[in-house]
Amino acid sequence: MKRRIIVAVCLLLVGVLGAAGTVGYLAFGRPPTNPPTEACADDRTSDALPTVVAAGSSSTQGTLGADWVGALRERPEHRGYEFVNAGVNGDTSADLRQRVDTDIIVCRPTAVMILIGGNDVRDDIPLDQYRDNLGAIVDRIKSRTTARIALLSLPPLGEDLDAALNRRLGTYNTVIQQTATRAQVDYLPVHEQLADVFRQRVGDPAPYDFSFPLAFGAATQHYLFGRSWDEVARSGGRELHVDHVHLNDRGGAIITELAAQWLAS
């Protein structure tokens, strides 16, 4: 009897660890759909589809929360484009600056969308350093390609717009606007449209409380139990965030629409 219990417990542990490993890989470990390493090989032909590169961190990678790049790719009007997802979980502006040649320029893009800086805010990267990195990224793309460029403002972190963290995030968004103006590239008001949704909510927003266990729990609900990202957000009493950082499908749809309008302009 004791042996059967031990075997059952061992099997249960194996199952739990296997499920946890699967969730961890799907949310944090796997690459995005059509990353630069697959899409932008050296033998790309001159008659390849016009390429749109979306570059950034986890909010662009789209494996934890909404995949707005994938939603763009699936639109019928975009069948004539190739969408490359150059989002990397955890990246800061310094990380993207280091890989701008290998993940953006090598793709010979027709258009580039950049959403980077949320991790700079969370890591308290000095504003001047962020400005220098973002400017260098844009200048490098402009000097090596003829691509149209759009800089996307940063989504709020958490849903309390008056929180100190979001007031500080606003200074980074000012840098994004200033960089777009200086470099004569486009600016997409992601933050502004998401903030409008938060202002319409009834009741006080939950305070910012991001943690890895919370993110893992959100991923478990989605990948293990099949709940939509919108359902995950609602279960935590949030409008647009699954874990105070990453957007649900409703929030992702706002970015998708802004990006689609820009591509069509």
UniProtKB/TrEMBL annotation:
Xref: Gene3D superfamilies: SGNH hydrolase
Record domain SGNH hydrolase-type esterase: where: 55-251
Domain of life according to the entry: Bacteria
SUPFAM superfamilies named in the record: SGNH hydrolase
InterPro entries: Ester_Hydrolysis_Enzymes, SGNH_hydro, SGNH_hydro_sf
Name the UniProt record assigns to this protein: SGNH hydrolase-type esterase domain-containing protein
Pfam families membership: Lipase_GDSL_2 (PF13472)
